[in-house]
Write a structure and sequence with these properties.
Blueprint lengths: L2 E3 L5 E3 L6 E4 H20 L9 E4 L5 E4 L2 H7 L5 H16 L4 H20 L4 H22 L1 E2 L3 H12 L8 H15 L10 E7 L7 E3 L2 E3 L11 E10 L19 H24 L4 E4 L5 H9 L3 E3 L4 H11 L3 E2 L11 E11 L2 E7 L7 E7 L2 H24 L1 E4 L3 H14 L6 H12 L1 H9 L4 H11 L6 E4 L4 E4 H4 L2 E3 H19 L3 E4 L8 H7 L11
Parallel strand pairs: 7-16, 10-11, 10-13, 11-12
Antiparallel strand pairs: 1-2, 3-21, 4-5, 6-17, 8-16, 9-15, 10-14, 14-15, 17-20, 18-19
Length: 545
Amino acid sequence: MAQLGGQQGQPILILPEGTNRFLGRDAQRMNISAGKVLAETVRTTLGPKGMDKMLVDSLGDIVVTNDGVTILKEMDIEHPAAKMLVEVAKTQEDEVGDGTTTAVIIAGELLKKAEGLLDQDIHPTIVAMGYRQAAEKSQEILNVISIDAKDHDTILKVAMTAMTGKGTEKAKEPLAELVVGAVKQVEENGEIDKDSIKIEKKDGATVDDSTLVQGVIIDKERVHPGMPKKIEGAKIALLNSAIEVKETEVDAEIRITDPAQMQAFIEQEEGMIREMVNKIDDTGANVLFCQKGIDDLAQHYLAKAGIMAVRRVKKSDMEKLAKATQAKVVTNIEDLTLEDLGEAGLVHEKKISGEDMIFVEGCKDPKAVTLLVRGSTEHVVDEIERAVEDAIGVVAATLEDGKVVAGGGAAEIAIAKGLKEYADTISGREQLAVAAFAEALEVVPKTLAENAGMDSIDTLVDLRAAHEKSIYMGLEVFKGEVRDMYRAGVIEPHRVKKQAIQSAAEAAEMILRIDDVIASSGSGKPGPEDMEAMGGMPGGMPPMM
C-alpha cells in the first residue's frame, strides 16, 4: 500500500509507513457506504412524524433535536466522504435555513443508485455527467411547477410547514405570525438581513408566551441600582469606548511628594469622569448602552443624572440597537451630539425567568427586532429556537423570491416524473443515470410515508397515479392519504428544493469521481488493524479513516 514494486521485486517506498490507501472500486464503495449511512442516520427525522435524536457529547451535555444540520454538527464525524455530506447540510442551512435533512437523504440516495450503476460497469464519469444533466433539468421542471406567491396567508403557511413536527406543534400558528411579522419588519428594499432578527430564549413558561418585541432585548441589567428602572420617551446614546480614565499607552511613573498632590491627582481623575458624564447628560440622553466598561464613579454620576446605563453590551447587540432606534454608535464621548441619539417609546428592566433583561421597545419602524422565545425547559426552548430559525429562513426566502412549491413530497414526485420523460429522449448510458436520479428523488415521499407508519410502496404508486391529474398531489401524513398539498396549506419555498437538489447532486458527483483515498498515518485516524477491531460503524458504515 505504501510501496510500489521495483526491478527484481525490490519495493520502492513513495508514501510514509502506516499510510492507508484505498484504490478504485474499494475507494468508491467505501465513500458511497459512508454517505448512505449518514443519510440513514438523519432519515428517520424527516417530516411531521419524524423522530428525534438525543446527542450526548463528551462532557455529558445533551441535545434533543430532529433538525438535520444540528444532528450532523453535533456528531463527531471522521470519515472524509461523510464530512462532504455534512457540508451539504451546512450550505443548505446557511442559504435557506430549512431542508437540511432533505438535502442529505437525496445525496445519500443518489450515491445508493450510483452504486447499482457502477456494478453494471458504467463508468463513474458517465454517472456524474448524467447526474449533472438531471440536476439541470430538475431546476427547469422546478421553475415550471412553482407558484408565484407573496401574500400574507401563503407566507404564513410556509412558516407553519417549516415548523411542523419540530416541538412547536401546538403553538405553530402564533409562532408563525410572530416570525412573519419579524421578517416583514426588517425587510429593506426587498432584501432581508436575517441577522437583524434577534432570538432571545428563556425557559420557565409555555411556547404561547413567546412574543415579538419591536426593538431589542439586551440580556444585561442596569449597572447601578440607583438608576431608573423604566424610562418612557427614551433618548438613547450608543458608545463603544469605556467611560473611565484611560491608562497611558507607555509605562509612566508619577512621583507624589505631598499628600495634597495625591488629593489633587484623585480630584483631577474624578473631574475627568464627571466631565464625561456631563457631556452625555448635556446631549439630552437618558439611556446609555456602552460596549466597554463603565467606572464605578461614572456609574454613581450617571445614576445621579437619572440616566439608565448598561455596560459591556455585545457588538452585535449594539448594531441591532442602532438599526432599531436609528442611533449612531459613537467612539469618542467628545463627538456625541443630539443628532447621534436614537429614540424608543420605552426602555425598562424586566425580570424574565429569574434574570434581569433590558427591553428597548416601541421603536419607530425598527429595522432590528427581537423574538422572545419561551418554553417549559431548557431542551424544549432550544428545539423551539431551531424551529423558529428554520421558519425565519423560509419566510425570508419566500419574500425575496416570491415562489413556492407544494410540500409533502409533491415537488419531488413531479420532478421525478419529468426526469423519467426526459431520460427517454437521451441516448447513451447517461440515460440510466438520469433515470436513477429521478428514482433517487422519490426517496423524500417514500421516507415521509415510512416515518408516518404507512406502506411506502403503496404510497408511491398512489402518488404517481395522482400526479397524472395534478402536480400538487402530495402525502398528508396526519390523515395518511394523498391529497392536494397546496389546498392543504403544506407549502415550501422554491429555494429550499432548488438548493437541496443542487447541493445533493454536486456532492454525489464529487464523491463518485474519487477513485483513490490516501489517508496519512499522522492524521490521528485508525489504521487497518484498528478498523478490523472496530468492525465498522453501526448500520454498516465503513470503518472511520
